[in-house]
Design brief:
By secondary structure, the protein is an alpha/beta fold. The chain is built from 18 helices and 15 strands.
Length: 444
């Protein structure tokens, strides 16, 4: 009876409150020490070529700040996995095909869209993009770069890159030569002064996306037809190759132009080369700059702007074939959600944030491209002479890459073939170009 009496006392309301309080404390303590706590949401995993953890340039620094701001404002934590710029597209395609470790969202290059489509590697974003508040503000060229032949949209454009010529004003008092014939005459005179007339990237995949693309297309060449088959074995392309051969064989350019890496840029930065065939983004990396007159500009990514303002540096459209217009390749660095993404909803939250005008404009400026939002073109940062020229050059002469289903292989094959032809003038250009073309098309 005594035990019953004690039990009845414990069951009194005031004692029950005490009992449940103690039990609550015990469970809380157990949860902290041994029981698993509720799982926190995983960070959004993205792939880019930007180094936010150890920034190397203005673009990296901006991206690191933007990710911190995104987490602070929206609570979205992002884990950026930095990839090699030349391998990120092939690596993403391979990861999807092999069901390997995938990001939730990835940076991709628009000129590689057909390779992604051929492998079925990207999610269809048509419904998402067409319903987005920024859809009607997109530059037509940017939207086209992310649109498949069937009209579906597979990526979100980030900014627009184009190609141009930077040159030292003192070496070209009459302006940069407009075509290859006038250029060769001027180049011979510069050679007598101990100067290279030009430097550009002539090796690796990016060579076929820059100076070589502009030159071959101005001569009337094409990389591929509408079905994606290579079409570069033509007399027009052979003419462009003959021009490149002349540049090297006559000592008008350094042989470093056709070597891997970026040592070719140093010739221009040191004032040893009169002109540099680069891109709208090149100003991020072209520093310090020393003009042929010995004036140095060492203001980080503002060096090009400073040299332009001082009148030491000028800009021109890419070299053209005689009687033809220049051609500048437009490429649009974009964002895509790979098939198999574990967090596509979070990826769209990221895109919604970065496609706001403020963020989209800052991204373009930090990366060296024009904004993909037409409303952002009025931003004060894009009203300088540099960006006005880039915009005009892009509008007049811009072209997008022809469709290629095996992009890296095609560009590597073409660049290596041209490099071989330039270095060995005894080879027949049409024969070698035909071999490369047949090799590529046989594996379609």
């Amino acid at each position: 009876m005594a035990q019953v009496s004690k039990m009845s006392q414990l069951c009194q309301p005031k004692h029950l409150v005490l009992v449940w309080t103690v039990i609550g404390i015990l469970f809380t303590a157990c949860g902290k020490q041994g029981l698993p706590a509720p799982a926190a949401s995983s960070p959004l995993v993205i792939w880019t070529s930007f180094n936010d953890k150890n920034p190397q340039n203005a673009q990296d620094r901006w991206f690191a700040q933007a990710l911190a701001k995104l987490e602070q404002e929206k609570g979205l934590k992002v884990e950026n996995e930095t990839q090699n710029y030349a391998q990120i597209n092939s690596k993403l395609n391979l990861a999807v095909a092999t069901k390997g470790d995938l990001p939730d969202l990835s940076y991709l290059n628009s000129q590689q869209l057909n390779t992604y489509l051929a492998k079925g590697a990207l999610e269809d974003l048509t419904a998402y993009v067409s319903a987005a508040p920024w859809f009607k503000d997109l530059e037509p060229a940017a939207l086209a770069a992310c649109t498949a032949p069937d009209g579906k949209i597979y990526c979100v454009p980030g900014h627009i890159y184009s190609r141009l010529i930077y040159y030292w004003a003192s070496d070209c008092p009459q302006g940069f030569p407009a075509d290859t014939v006038a250029f060769l005459k001027a180049a011979e005179q510069l050679k007598q002064q101990g100067k290279y007339a030009l430097t550009f990237k002539g090796s690796e995949v990016s060579a076929a996306e820059g100076f070589i693309f502009s030159l071959l297309h101005s001569f009337g060449g094409k990389y591929a037809d509408a079905e994606g088959k290579a079409t570069w074995a033509t007399p027009e392309v052979a003419q462009a190759v003959a021009f490149l051969r002349t540049l090297l064989q006559e000592g008008l350019v350094s042989d470093v132009v056709f070597s891997p890496g970026f040592d070719h840029e140093r010739l221009f930065q040191d004032g040893k080369a009169t002109a540099f065939g680069g891109g709208s983004w090149s100003y991020i990396y072209l520093y310090p700059l020393t003009s042929p007159q010995g004036k140095t500009f060492a203001q980080d990514s503002a060096s090009v702007a400073a040299a332009l303002e001082a009148g030491e540096l000028k800009l021109a459209s890419p070299l053209a074939a005689p009687g033809e217009k220049p051609v500048t390749l437009l490429t649009i660095p974009s964002w895509g959600i790979p098939k198999g993404s574990k967090q596509p909803a979070l990826a769209k939250q990221f895109l919604a944030y970065f496609m706001q005008r403020e963020q989209s404009t800052a991204y373009a400026f930090a990366s060296g491209g024009l904004p993909v939002l037409t409303s952002a073109l009025t931003d004060v940062r894009f009203q300088t002479p540099y960006w006005q020229f880039v915009r005009e050059n892009q509008t007049k002469y811009g072209q997008q890459m022809e469709p290629l289903h095996h992009y890296d292989r095609a560009m590597t094959l073409l660049t290596e073939t041209i490099g071989r032809l330039v270095l060995d003038p005894n080879l027949d250009s049409l024969t070698e170009l035909q071999k490369a073309q047949e090799s590529y098309n046989a594996q379609q």
